[in-house]
Amino acid sequence: MRVLVTGGAGFIGSHFVRRLAEQGTEVSVLDKLTYAGNPANLEGVEHEFHQGDIADPEAVARAASGCSAIVNFAAETHVDRSILGPRDFVHTDVLGTMCLLEWAREHDARYVQVSTDEVYGDLEAGGRAVETDPLRPSSPYSAAKAGGDLQVLAYVRTYGVRASITRGANTYGPNQYPEKLVPLFATNALDGEALPVYGDGKQVREWLHADDHCAGIELVLHEGAPGEVYNVGGEDHENIEVTHRILELTGADASLIRHVEDRAGHDRRYAVDDTKLRALGWAPEQSFGEGGLPATVSWYRDNRSWWEPIKSGSYRAYYDEQYANRLKA
Ligand code: NAD
Ligand code: DAU
C-alpha cells in the first residue's frame, strides 16, 4: 500500500508519516509548507515529498500517483487566525478537501478525512458528542472543517467514495507550532514570558497525545467503514489546570499568568464519546498529566533549536496582532 499523506509536514501529519514509514509503508507527502509546515518535522523519515496545494488538482495528481489511499491532514488549523481572516480556511479546508475527494473518486482510492471535535460546537457540562450529533460549529475554522466533512459525506453517498472521517480532540506533543495552548505556554514559560489565559481559563478541552491520535486514524484507515465517522477522545481538563501544570513542569512562576480578553465566540467545552473507535480496538496509551504532558514539556526544553527560529519574523508579527493589546489592557 502506498499512502498519500497531505499536510504531512505539519504537527500531527508528521507523526503519522513517521508511524507509517516505521512500519515500512510507502508514503507520499503533499504539503504547501504554509507557516505551519516545517520540513524539519520529517527529518530522517523515509518519504517522497511534494510541495503543493491540495486545492490544485495537478499538484494532487502528481503527489497521489501510485497511491491507493489518501489521509488528509492538510488544513488551516488555528481558531484565532481564522477569526483574523477566514479566507484561507475555506480555500484549504473545504475546496482542498473536495479536490482530494475528486482524485479518490477517479482512482477508487480509500480516503480518510482528519476532522475535529470542534465541529460539534460548544457542549453543555456533562454531555458528550456522538458521531450522529448535528454539526454546530462556532468559529470560521470549525465551520470550514464542518464544510469539509459534509463534502466527504456527499462524495460517499453520491459517488460511492470509500471515505471515513475521524474527529479528534485537542492534540499535543512534540513538533506542534507554538501558537496553540500547550507549545505556546511551554515555550513562553521557558523564556519567562507572560501566559495569556483567555477569560477565566475555565474552558474545558480534551487532551489527546499525537501518537494516540495517529493510532486512531491508522485504525480507521484500515478498519473503518465508508461513510462512518469516528470520534477520537482525550482527557478532560480546564485550561487553567493545564496552565498551572505547565508552570510546575517548567519551574516558572505563577505570576506569569495573565487573564486577558477572551477569544470571540469562544467555545466553553468540548467532549466526545469515542465508544465507536474503542469498539474497533483503539485505546489511548498516554496519560496527559502524568506522562504525555511532562514528556512534551521536556521535548520543548530540549529542542530550542526547533522552536526558537519559528518564534521570530512573521510569528512575531502574528503574536503582536493577537496579544499586544490584550497584554497591555
Ligand atoms: P498544522 O497546522 O500543524 O499543520 C497543517 C499542515 O497542512 C501544514 O504542514 C501546512 O503546511 C499544511 N497545509 C495547509 N494548507 C495546505 C494546502 N492548501 N495544501 C497543502 N498543505 C497545506 O495542523 P495539525 O494541528 O497537525 O492538524 C492536522 C489536522 O488535524 C488538521 O486537519 C486539523 O484540523 C486536524 N485536527 C487537529 C487537532 C489539533 O489539536 N491540532 C485536533 C483535531 C483535529
Ligand atoms: O479540539 C480540536 C481542536 O483543538 C483542533 O481542531 C484545532 O486545530 C486546534 O487548534 C485546537 O483548537 P483550540 O482552539 O481548542 O486550541 P488552542 O490551543 O488554540 O486553544 C486551547 C484552549 O486554550 C482554548 O480554550 C483557548 C485557550 N487559549 C489558547 C491560546 C492560544 C488561551 O487561553 N490562550 C491562548 O493564548
Search tags:
single chain; three-stranded mixed β-sheet; binds nicotinamide-adenine-dinucleotide; binds 2'deoxy-thymidine-5'-diphospho-alpha-D-glucose; 12 helices; 18% strand; Rossmann fold; alpha/beta; 329 residues
Describe this structure in words.
By secondary structure, the protein is of the alpha/beta class. The protein has a single domain, classed as 3-Layer(aba) Sandwich (Rossmann fold). Helix content is 43%, strand content 18%. It has 12 helices and 12 strands. It has helices spanning 11-22, 57-64, 79-84, 87-107, 140-159, 181-190, 210-223, 239-250, 275-279, 288-302, 304-307, 313-328; strands at residues 2-6, 26-31, 48-51, 69-72, 110-116, 162-168, 170-172, 195-198, 204-209, 229-232, 235-238, 257-260. The protein has a 7-stranded parallel β-sheet, with helices on both faces. Strands 7-9-11 form a 3-stranded mixed β-sheet. The chain has a two-stranded parallel sheet with strand order 8-12. Helix 1 (11-22) packs across helix 7 (210-223) and helix 4 runs parallel beside helix 5 (140-159). The protein binds nicotinamide-adenine-dinucleotide (NAD) and 2'deoxy-thymidine-5'-diphospho-alpha-D-glucose. 2'deoxy-thymidine-5'-diphospho-alpha-D-glucose (DAU) binds at residues 77-79, 116-118, 169-170, 180-181, 184, 196-198, 203, 205, 239, 263, 270.
